[in-house]
Amino acid sequence: MTTTRIVRIGNSQGIRIPKAILEQAELPAEVELRAEPGRLVLTAARQPRAGWVDAARDMHARGYDQLLDPPQSTDFDSKEWEW
């Protein structure tokens, strides 16, 4: 643990995070910041659609990936579709 000060950065305020602390945290370049009473919490930014592959596999394994409605034929299917 280390102590630091909140400093003015233009019209904002910020903190300097020592390199050793950043290395221990193993944070990527992009982080998410949220406020909780008495603390600021920094976490690695989640990638879009992170975990979707595992969720899809789990749904398939449970049989939850079936169509909700039966397939419907349309005019396109009977008149315009070509093999």
Share of helix among residues?
Answer: 25-40%
Mean pLDDT: 90
| H/I helix tally | 3
Gyration radius over CA:
25 Å
Number of strands: 4
Largest sheet, in brief, is:
2 strands, antiparallel
Question: How does the helix and strand content classify structurally?
Answer: alpha+beta
Strand fraction equals 15-25%
Please list the strands of the largest sheet in the order they lie side by side. Answer: 1-2
Any idea what the shape is? elongated
Give the low-confidence spans.
none
What's the end-to-end separation, in Å? Answer: 67 Å
What is the H/E order?
A: EEHEEHH
Brief sketch in words of this structure:
Helix content is 29%, strand content 22%. It has 83 residues and is of the alpha+beta class.
How do the helices and strands line up, and which of them pair or pack?
Layout: E1 7-9, E2 12-14, H1 19-25, E3 31-36, E4 39-44, H2 52-62, H3 75-80
Antiparallel strand pairs: 1-2, 3-4
